[in-house]
Amino acid sequence: MSGIAWERLFGWRPAFDERAVVLIVAVLGGVFVLAPLIILALDHAGRLSPALKADLRSRYLSWLIMVPLIVLPVLLGAAPTILAVALLSLLCYREFARATGLFREKIMSVTVVLGIVAVTFAVADHWYAFFVALTPITLTVLTAVATSLDRPAGYIQRVALAVFGFLLFGICLGHLGYMANDTRFRSLILLLLFSVQLNDIFAYIVGKSLGGPKLAPHTSPNKTISGSLGAVVLTTLLVYLLSGLIFTEGPLSGPVQRLVLGLLISISGQFGDLSVSSIKRDVGVKDTGSLIPGHGGVLDRANSLLLSAPTVFHYINYLDSIGIDQATRVLSGGG
User: Fold this and answer.
1) Is 9 helix (H, G, I), strand (E, B) or coil?
2) pTM over 0.90
3) Which Gene Ontology terms describe the biological processes this protein takes part in (predicted)?
4) 47, exposed or middle or buried, with CB in 10 Å at 0-12, 13-18, 19+?
5) All structural domains of the chain with their residue ranges
6) How far apart are the C-alpha atoms of 39 and 23, rounded to whole Å?
7) Where does residue 50 rank: exposed (0-12), middle (13-18), buried (19+ CB within 10 A)?
8) Which residue among 114, 124, 150, 310 is least enclosed by CB atoms within 10 Å?
């Protein structure tokens, strides 16, 4: 392994060399300082009911725990980032399997988990050909495993759920980890994480303020068309401004390309959110888990990343080649 690859994987000293990283971390720090003061001021003004006050406090304390768990691995290096994404993938799959009943199919779940582990290795190795090949390979193995059980009853459901779970939590989230193979990985990943979370907040605030027709009343009754459009506008502007600090030259430095990046993040993030809402409605659960107080399960918070991670990865990779200047197959020794 070259010194450059080692520094990218485990070096933490360059964490704040990128302006976008400094700005995002500073904004997050400012939010943590101001949020309790705002809650206190609204409470003194009589604008908060006891239930809403308790809910805001619970959510603040949850974010106080969640944000460091998300941001610290990215700051520490590519290897901690990749491992954190792998853990996120496994936790999301666990909640999906329990919600859908797939956890009862032990051998299918083990196969999906092994597929996610293989994806993590391909990502850490910077072996893109293997990363791409893992989709048909794992689908083939899942189909063969299900067939070998000699249980035709429920065959389609077992295979479909396992394939769907692997694609969402292995491949889709794997693209988030693969961004760690780029020299700008801290800026790229934090931009995506920061944007999709604010995308949800923008939709909530605008929707509550303007109201109007529901976006998808049978899927997510609280979402409005005004909230969705407001999030698209605000998130696109946010990404446009932040991405200017990352892409100072090259194809993605153009204003149109940065606006498209913002649109893609907002729209794909909202569809990711709605896709998990559809799953929950279908199986009849309110939250996919209860690991995070005030937020439900891990999947309830990571839903916006499911479709935005591969969308953003391929958009940036098409225009500006992610990780092209970095050594490949750093673990397997093929590069």
Assistant:
1) helix
2) yes
3) peptidoglycan-based cell wall biogenesis
4) exposed
5) 90-181
6) 24
7) exposed
8) 150
